[in-house]
# Entry
Amino acid sequence: MTMPSTLDERFRATAAAEGLLDVAYDLVDSPLGTLFVAATERGLCRISFDPEPELEEERLARGFGARVLRSPRALDDARRELADYFEGDRHSFELDLDLRPLAEFNRAVLAQLARVPYGQTTTYGTLAARSGKPRAARAVGTVMNRNPIPIVLPCHRVVGSTGKLVGYGGGLDRKESLLRLEGALWGG
Amino acid sequence: MPPFERFYEAHREEIFAFLVRRLGRNRAEDAFQETFLRALRSYGRLNHGRALRAWVYTIAGRVSIDELRRTRPYTAPPDWLEAVDEGRPPYAEIEHLTSRLPPTERAAVVLRYGYDLDYTDIGAALGSSPEAARQAASAGVRRLRRKELQ
# Structure
């Protein structure tokens, strides 16, 4: 006898509601493809493009603890804010973030990144200077590349010193789509 | 430790089927929920990911015993268990008495006499045939009797 899907849903929802999970995640549809979105009790901790859930689960288990479970309801707020953002109705996110596994420098850079406004761009060098390490543009590039929460931490708003888009963990076409959505990029 | 999702995905169907056999369809749903919530509560404290299947069967066995206790009395315990403290449920007493048995025999004895499982379920929990489970349980009982006579 196959177990009913309602039972499976009930367990996943209760596990999160009772605070028994280290990490809850879900797969969320978006105009940029399916996103893997994960959160701890403290806040959002992961968004990834082209997700491979099993790999993501392993990484999250190492970073936050082994009680990692898909639990769609636990991601309701994140799903709603992302949907609003992709509709163009939201220009900043209110979600708490959990960046505990990251090194201090990475957290400092991402804190500066979070202050880059919707629809604007900055450069790796500027971000390095704002993080207190003006010569660390390359290191900032690495932090952007490893950004655990793209879109919400807007590494797509960081461009090369000539204004060229350069790299993006999720692929340059996605970076372009996000900047276009925000009105930071015109023409074709 | 594997992420809980992997563990849950790997075992949810067979544990549900096990609970349906033990408790019937209606009561199996609550017992399923309780089994995996209990597993989740202790999962973070496990030191390694070995024998997770036998572990979750043990939890499911315990949950179904709790459920059955509310509605029907225990099966009579075997003779070597007669002297146990009546204040404790059989599985609690047996876990203590069998602590020196080899692991497979211990698991088979505990699941058979502590949780009243049949050999098909015990075989499933141990990853062996029902016949091998029966042999492990009787080898364990023989060993316990010998100890008693010493």
